[in-house]
């Protein structure tokens, strides 16, 4: 290893350590890493901060604004009302319909939406116990369902991350957003099938001392949007999604369509400028932009290619492409599960997986997709975020949690990798 490789690796390790330790605000460690790249002479200022003008980052920043506006419509309220009505009816059929409703809601809320899973978990925790449809049989399936859109139209974040890691690695072939959505759909359907089977194995016990008053979900003081503003907001969301799905046809225009839609919802006062500014500069956007400079530096020093060659040599030229991407998906999702750092885990393993594919003469698209999506699909340990909330709010014992979460995890990863390699042949 050269001194440049050691310096770039040291900055990467420092950045990841700060992300995982929560010593700095989320999104701040990559900015520090960019500054250190310039200080060490590994990158110029434009190179270190290139992520802030990356087309995919700009696209996602605009879409974050549109999503913030969509959260102000009555769509989420309608999902809540339907959930309560189904629970009151009880039965296995109601359980299945609840799963579908929550997964459709996830299509609007987006992958890993903290607000959405907190909303669903909080709602389930307030439902009184009934033998017909015990809430302990709902907490795990519905909680994890918030991460699985049944209509995968809202995959901009993961698609943008995938496009970014591929572009950073020097792979500039266009990736179809429609095909990317189909990979996500395959994984969501596999999750749904497991939940329908797991009904028989889920525990039956009360999870909360809920009363009739607790069923009433508190509404925010903010006034409801007029009907015409709701229609305009939903229309802006639809235009953004269609624009991103037509990236291959529209070219550069597709990257700014969400931003234009965000400007539209600002003009009609669905959001004020502070809300637009906060969502365009959200920590996840800063994280995405910042790590691009670090990844570029690693690639520029030859470190990424070196590791890729080493992994390729270890696996051998005769390795099955399916086994190859499964290994990297398991590594990424496990790292994310134990550290709570989805984005950090993806940016560790994605460049290595892409470099290894290149060394083996394989198309890296399927591997990149599997690695990126797997970063948000661990959760078999109740260590951080949603899994921890599910364990605590559901009053599960750890074996009960594992009985559902471990098979779910393996089924999702296998479905993800199979779909990725089938839709994007290596």
TrEMBL record:
Domain Citrate transporter-like stretches: 18-338
UniProt xrefs under InterPro entries: Cit_transptr-like_dom (IPR004680), DASS-Related_Transporters (IPR051679)
Pfam family, one: CitMHS
Chief subcellular location: membrane
BP terms from Gene Ontology: transmembrane transport
Transmembrane segments: 51-70, 150-169, 181-202, 253-272, 284-307, 319-339, 346-376, 401-424
Full protein name: Sodium:sulfate symporter transmembrane region
């Amino acid at each position: 290893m050269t001194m440049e490789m050691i310096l770039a690796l040291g900055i990467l390790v420092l950045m990841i350590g700060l992300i995982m330790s929560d010593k700095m605000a989320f999104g701040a460690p990559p900015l520090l890493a960019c500054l250190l790249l310039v200080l060490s002479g590994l990158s110029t200022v434009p190179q270190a901060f290139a992520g802030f003008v990356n087309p995919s980052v700009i696209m996602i920043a605009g879409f974050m604004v549109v999503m913030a506006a969509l959260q102000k419509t009555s769509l989420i309220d309608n999902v809540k009302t339907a959930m309560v009505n189904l629970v009151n009816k009880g039965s296995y059929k109601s359980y299945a319909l609840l799963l579908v409703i929550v997964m459709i809601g996830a299509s609007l809320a987006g992958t890993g939406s903290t607000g959405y899973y907190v909303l669903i978990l909080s709602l389930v925790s307030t439902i009184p116990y009934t033998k017909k449809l015990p809430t302990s049989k709902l907490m795990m399936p519905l909680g994890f369902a918030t991460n699985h859109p049944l209509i995968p139209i809202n995959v901009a974040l993961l698609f943008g991350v995938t496009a970014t890691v591929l572009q950073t690695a020097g792979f500039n072939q266009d990736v179809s957003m429609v095909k990317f959505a189909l990979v996500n759909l395959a994984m969501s359907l596999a999750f749904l099938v497991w939940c329908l089977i797991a009904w028989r194995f889920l525990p039956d016990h009360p999870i909360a001392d809920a009363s009739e008053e607790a069923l009433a979900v508190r509404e925010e003081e903010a006034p409801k949007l007029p009907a015409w503003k709701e229609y305009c907001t939903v229309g802006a969301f639809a235009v953004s999604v269609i624009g991103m799905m037509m990236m291959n046809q529209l070219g550069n225009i597709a990257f700014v369509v969400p931003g234009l839609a965000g400007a539209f919802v600002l003009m009609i006062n669905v959001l004020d400028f502070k809300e637009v500014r906060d969502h365009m500069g959200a920590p996840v956007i800063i994280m995405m932009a910042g790590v691009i400079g670090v990844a570029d530096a690693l690639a520029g020093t030859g470190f990424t290619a070196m590791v890729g060659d080493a992994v390729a040599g270890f696996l051998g030229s005769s390795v099955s492409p399916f086994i190859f991407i499964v290994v990297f998906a398991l590594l990424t999702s496990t790292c994310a599960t134990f550290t709570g750092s989805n984005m950090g885990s993806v940016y560790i393993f994605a460049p290595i997986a892409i470099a290894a594919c290149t060394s083996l003469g394989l198309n890296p698209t399927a591997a990149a997709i599997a690695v990126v999506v797997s970063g948000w699909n661990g959760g078999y340990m109740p260590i951080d975020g949603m899994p921890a909330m599910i364990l605590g709010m559901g009053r599960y014992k750890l074996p009960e949690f594992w009985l559902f979460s471990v098979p779910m995890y393996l089924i999702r990863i296998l479905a993800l990798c199979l779909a990725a390699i089938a839709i994007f042949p290596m």
